[in-house]
Write a structure and sequence with these properties.
455 residues, Gln_synth_cat_dom, 33% helix, Gln_synth/guanido_kin_cat_dom, 6-stranded mixed sheet, alpha+beta, 13 helices
């Protein structure tokens, strides 16, 4: 290891130090999340990184759509001024799939006046966490990640199909919690565990979900920013693990027709920064009125943030009845048909699970959007409607059913725009409307099949 790396190496997590112990560090990837959750940045030799306190990227990376197009800049001319990126050494993590010894480091994003860039998704989440902190609270989240392992698909015109398992048969659906189903692609799971261990990430559990080749990974509860960083990293490591075994990992909300979609369920609790106690539980162990305020905030404002929790046209294919996806704002205790579920727990672990978010959402923005709703509920101190005691799949709620409607609701909700940041919301809306407009220009196979000769 080069002597010049000593100072910054002392600041990085133990897992990263252990990964490069006794070896020469070759490269450092300096990255940030764009609007979609794609890693953008630069890779540089470790010796150069050690001598460089910051680097520059144009602010246009937050105007780039998922297709690589550029959205209109709602703030004015498209001049692409540089932003200043500085390393957050606490995020340093191995890239164990690379041929050489490489670390990844997430960077903080500020403008040339030293102010946080509002459009940066990690800054949006920091903004929300700071609102909680100002009230003497610390938000806690615990995410569940669902994704599909699928056969390689190099022709977008062909449907996605399940991967081939070690038995020589394709992965089967309707095998939720089956250990033998997970064993079908056990080598991929083994690499996921190995990569996660090298990166210092703790996995609470891996299980087979209901779809063919669908897997769920549960993460420990903790600080929203740290866990969003982990999911940001996890998506990449899971994709890399799949590629090693001739398949793809996809986080699309609905990749396979007729199969369930992939969610990112988010469990929420809030603790007092003064006492460390869960503010959702009273000293006698009962639910507090504060807990009900949080639920009410979710019911009131989730429609306005669906555009962040379901950010693509494909996201809304997940919101269909009878596919284990919530399409309502009901809440209930231990009721998985509700969009807002209160899991069984002891008083210290009392929490609310938001089941609406898709796994295709940017984790920083998914956490920020969900926490923003709860925060507004805590501040407004309203009460939720009555608990749903039956099948909430039969309920009807004013949830948007497509991206265009979701963006319209976001554009009109002043309280949500103020807590997330008006500048961010304007940029986000511009990017997503550009994507939606581009999608509407595509002629689908369904249209060719049923309309070409029949209308």
């Amino acid at each position: 290891m080069q002597p010049s790396t000593t100072d910054w190496m002392d600041k990085i997590p133990e897992a990263a130090r252990s990964y490069i112990a006794g070896r020469r560090l070759d490269e450092v990837e300096c990255i940030v999340s764009d609007i979609a959750g794609v890693a953008r940045g630069k890779a540089m030799p470790a010796s150069k990184f050690a001598k460089q306190a910051s680097f520059f990227l144009p602010n246009s990376i937050f105007l780039q759509t998922i297709t690589g197009d550029w959205a209109d800049n709602p703030s004015g001319a498209f001049t692409e001024p540089d932003m200043i990126l500085t390393p957050d050494y606490s995020t340093a993590s191995a890239a164990p799939w690379t041929a050489d010894v490489t670390l990844q480091v997430i960077h903080d994003v500020k403008d040339q006046q030293g102010k946080p860039v509002e459009a940066a998704p990690r800054n949006v989440l920091k903004r929300i966490v700071e609102l909680y902190n100002a009230q003497g609270w610390s938000p806690i989240v615990a995410p569940e990640m669902e994704f599909f392992l699928v056969a390689r698909n190099i022709d977008p015109n062909q449907p996605i199909i399940p991967p081939m398992g070690r038995s020589g048969r394709r992965a089967a659906a309707k095998q939720a919690y089956s250990m033998s189903a997970v064993d079908e692609y056990g080598k991929v799971i083994d690499d996921i565990y190995d990569f996660a261990e090298a990166q210092g990430f703790e996995i609470d559990g891996i299980l087979q979900e209901g779809g063919a080749g669908q897997v769920e990974i549960n993460l420990h509860h903790g600080d929203p920013i740290e866990l969003a960083d982990e999911i940001f990293y996890f998506k990449r490591l899971i994709r890399e693990a799949a590629l090693r075994h001739d398949c793809f990992a996809t986080f699309m909300a609905k990749p396979i027709e007729g199969e369930p979609g992939s969610a990112m369920h988010i469990h929420h609790s809030v603790v007092s920064t003064k006492t460390g106690e869960n503010i959702f539980s009273a000293p006698n162990g009962n639910e507090t009125e504060t807990f009900l305020h949080f639920i009410a905030g979710m019911q009131t404002y989730l429609p306005a943030v669906i555009a962040l929790l379901a950010p693509y046209v494909n996201s809304y294919r997940r919101y269909v009845p009878d596919f284990a996806a919530p399409i309502n704002l009901e809440w209930g205790r231990d009721n998985r048909t509700t969009g807002l579920r209160v899991p069984i727990s002891d008083p210290a672990g009392r929490r609310l699970e938001n089941r609406l978010a898709g796994m295709d959402c940017n984790p920083y923005l998914g956490f920020a959007a969900s926490l923003a709703c709860g925060y507004l509920g805590l501040m407004e101190k309203k009460l939720p409607r009555s608990e749903c005691l039956g099948d909430a799949y039969m309920s009807e709620d004013d949830l948007p059913t497509n991206l265009g409607d979701a963006l319209d609701i976001l554009a009109e909700c002043v309280p949500v725009r103020e807590v997330l940041g008006v500048e961010f919301c304007n940029i986000y809306e511009s990017v997503k409307r550009n994507e939606y407009k581009e999608f509407l220009q595509v002629i689908s196979p369904w249209e060719r099949e049923h309309l070409l000769l029949n209308v």
